[in-house]
């Protein structure tokens, strides 16, 4: 399922136009991104939680030359599925 399929499903489920469903989806995604950028956790009970994790810096290898390169530390988004989502999948 891609974004347009998801917009269609939201529009059908909520009985709203596709344009309104698209704006609602974009608004929800932007709110999640903003919260994560501010270091907050986004919890959707029964669905899951979005958090920000830390990835430590490390030394890697350039595959073409074999030379050592430094990979910077980074913040990475993480998703932890909730019980309701796990039960729905299984």
Automatic annotation (TrEMBL):
Entry-linked SUPFAM superfamilies: IHF-like DNA-binding proteins (SSF47729)
Gene Ontology MF terms: DNA binding; identical protein binding; structural constituent of chromatin
The entry's keywords: DNA condensation, DNA-binding
Keyword DNA-binding: yes
InterPro entries in UniProt: Hist_DNA-bd (IPR000119), Histone-like_DNA-bd_CS (IPR020816), IHF-like_DNA-bd_dom_sf (IPR010992)
GO biological process annotation, one example: DNA-templated transcription
Domain of life: Bacteria
Gene3D superfamilies assigned to the protein according to its UniProt record, in alphabetical order: IHF-like DNA-binding proteins
Presence of the UniProt keyword DNA-binding in the record: yes
A GO CC term assigned to this protein in UniProt: cytosol
UniProt function note: Histone-like DNA-binding protein which is capable of wrapping DNA to stabilize it, and thus to prevent its denaturation under extreme environmental conditions.
Family per similarity comment: Belongs to the bacterial histone-like protein family.
Protein name (Swiss-Prot/TrEMBL): Histone family protein DNA-binding protein
Phylogenetic lineage: Bacteria, Pseudomonadati, Pseudomonadota, Betaproteobacteria, Nitrosomonadales
């Amino acid at each position: 399922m891609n974004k347009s399929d998801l917009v269609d499903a939201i529009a059908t489920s909520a009985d709203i136009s596709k344009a309104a469903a698209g704006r609602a989806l974009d608004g929800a995604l932007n709110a999640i991104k903003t919260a994560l950028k501010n270091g907050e956790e986004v919890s959707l009970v029964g669905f899951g939680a979005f958090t920000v994790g830390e990835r430590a810096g490390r030394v890697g290898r350039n595959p073409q030359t074999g030379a050592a390169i430094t990979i910077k530390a980074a913040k990475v988004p993480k998703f932890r599925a909730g019980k309701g989502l796990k039960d729905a999948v299984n």
